[in-house]
Amino acid sequence: MKKTLIIAMLVALVASGVQAQVQAAFGLKGGVNLAKVDVSADAVNNYENRTGFHGGGFLLVKLTKIGIQPEVLFSRQGSKLNINTKSYDLTYDYINIPVMLKLYLAAGLNLQMGPQFGLLRDAAGTAITTTGDPLEVSKDTFKKSDLSFAIGAGWDLPFGLVVEGRYNLGLSKIQDNPNLDATKNQVVQVSLGYKLFKLGN
Length: 201
What we know:
Number of helices: 1
Distance between the termini: 35 Å
Strand order of the largest sheet: 1-3-4-5-6-8-9-10
Number of strands: 10
Helix content: under 10%
Radius of gyration: 22 Å
Strand content: over 45%
CATH architecture: Beta Barrel
Oligomer: single chain
CATH class: Mainly Beta
CATH topology: Porin
C-alpha cells in the first residue's frame, strides 16, 4: 500500500512538472508575400516577383526549447509575367496548412522549418505556353493541391506579439497541362502575429 502511494505521488509530481513546462497559445497572424513561380524552361527570366498577402490563425504548443506550430492561412501567390514588353499578373489563391517545428534559442528568438500543404482556391491571369505564347488560365488549369517545404526564423516578443520571416520552396508541380511550362511555387513571407490566448507558464 505504501509503495503504491509513493509511486502514485512520484507520477503526480512528474506529471505536474511536465505540465508546468508545456505552453500552448492560439493566435492570429498576417503579412506580405513576395511570390514567384519557378519555371523549368528557358522562359524563367520572364517571371518576376508578385506582391501578395496572407492571413489566418496558428496554434503553438511549446515544451521548453521545442515548439510545434500548425497554421491555417489564406495566401495570395502567383507571379508577374513579361511577354514581348507586356506585363501580366498570374494569381493563385491557396489555403495553406504549414506545420512548423520551432527551435527556441534565447529571448524568444527561434528557428523554424516544416512541410506546408496547400489547397488551391482560385487561379486567374496569364501563363506562358511551351512555345512562348501567353495563355489565359483558370483554376481548372492547375492542380488542386500543392506541397512546399518552409524554413525561416521568428521572434516571440513580450505582450504576445510575434514576428516571423519564412521562405516556402515548392516541391510539387502546380499543373499538369502539357501546353504550359512546369512550374513550382516560391514564396517569401513576412508576418506579424498576436497570441490571443495562452495556457501554461
